[in-house]
Amino acid sequence: MSKKTLTACVIRRLERVAGLALVVVGLTLRCALAQETPVSVPPAATATATAHPTPPTPAPGSIPGPTGAQLRMGSENGFGIGALDPEPTALYGPNRVSAVLPDNGNVSTLSIPLYYVSHPTPDQRWLLELEGDNTQFGLDFSYTYHPVAMPGVFIANVFYMDGRMQNTDSGRIDVGLLDPRNVAPWYHQLGGGVEYSQPVARHLQLAFALNYRQTAVYSGPFTARVPALDALGNPLTLSSTGIDHMFSARLAALYTKLDNPQFPTSGTKVRFSGEQTIPTSGADINSTRFGASWTRFFPVHLFSFHDGPCVLILNAEAATMLGDTPGYDAYNFGGVNSVRGWEQGGLGTGQSFFESTIEYRFPIAHPKIFGTDIDLRGAIYADYGTDLGTAGAVLGRPALVRGKPGEGSGIGAGLQVPSAIGLIRLESGFNNLGGFSLDLTIGDRY
């Protein structure tokens, strides 16, 4: 990449970061000013709640929600901004959290989802979620039912996802479609599923789903379908028709034992997922996959610049896919929620991957902005990732033809603000090849 091109990319990234920063500041101040009464907490939890304000959660026994301080602002009935999908989930959808690589596939880190939710009765919920920017558009429409006589909930959804993906959009070499314009592929995915989720132990929740998903390649949003080949003639779908169909059974598990589920300083969080495609006459993909992530939070004080809790975080993630591995389903790593210092998916696209992180978070200051106390925190971190030599096993070899190294590391520092709308993160990173990244996002990576 030339210096001129690199400079232009950095300028575009800074413009996007600055634009979202203004939105985030406005949302944060609006939430803070709207809080007319303080939230009471038990004495034993006072220190944690004061340092890390926790967003409102549903009442016990109701429909579960997301974890990890994800973006959230709105009511339980009506319009809102952010995520409402429960975790764990074995369903597919544009805003659903996977067991590993939460950004897997998504090019954008700045997209803000919108939702409309309705509870016709306390044990039922209709939820419509929309998410989009200049690189993607997604829709997820779901119905949730919590039978009174059962410990779990049933969820059915239909979804539509349309956008560029990391497997073909990132890398040091630009390889687009087999088209004179060399435009990046847009992947249109349509599908749905049925899920049952319930707690099986005090800290363990399981979800099981049957899913259907259809994938096709287009040259952009609202355009006609094009041959599923890149500019070098490599296939982008398994089917010769250019449309892949997949039926699968999927299991997801979440184990959490944390002092605070949204802004933890102590405890353990483990995610696991497994998926097996179901052979049918109309299915094109035959594969099995497993993935898991482990995160441990230690209340360790190494240094700080203000009073407040410090935390040392260790994280490891790994996954593998056996059988057919189309590029849009492979493991893409590198980026703000993966190995920092790299662009989204710029480090590798593999049939398997391993990733590890060590991060230290510490208080910096508690400034007052427009009469609102801000808990400004710092973070330093080091990340490492590898595709374990599996880039060549992915259909079309997207990582190899685009010059992704397949193994690398990153170090950096960032600023974080726990807030009523989620964990706001401004994070920079330098990778082992001298590259630099700067990202602003909302929601924890763990």
Question: What this model shows, in words?
Answer:
With 446 residues, this protein is mostly beta strands. It has a single domain (3-36, 58-442), classed as membrane protein fhac: a member of the omp85/tpsb transporter family (Porin), CATH 2.40.160.50. The protein is built from four helices and 21 strands. The chain has helices at 3-34, 46-51, 166-169, 398-401; strands at residues 72-74, 78-82, 114-118, 124-133, 136-145, 153-163, 186-201, 204-218, 243-258, 267-277, 287-298, 311-323, 331-333, 348-350, 352-365, 368-369, 372-373, 376-386, 407-419, 422-431, 436-442. It has a 17-stranded antiparallel sheet. The longest helix is centred in the N-terminal third of the chain and has 32 residues, at 3-34.
How would the blueprint of this fold be written?
Layout: H1 3-34, H2 46-51, E1 72-74, E2 78-82, E3 114-118, E4 124-133, E5 136-145, E6 153-163, H3 166-169, E7 186-201, E8 204-218, E9 243-258, E10 267-277, E11 287-298, E12 311-323, E13 331-333, E14 348-350, E15 352-365, E16 368-369, E17 372-373, E18 376-386, H4 398-401, E19 407-419, E20 422-431, E21 436-442
Antiparallel strand pairs: 1-2, 2-3, 3-4, 4-5, 5-6, 6-7, 7-8, 8-9, 9-10, 10-11, 11-12, 12-15, 13-14, 15-18, 16-17, 18-19, 19-20, 20-21
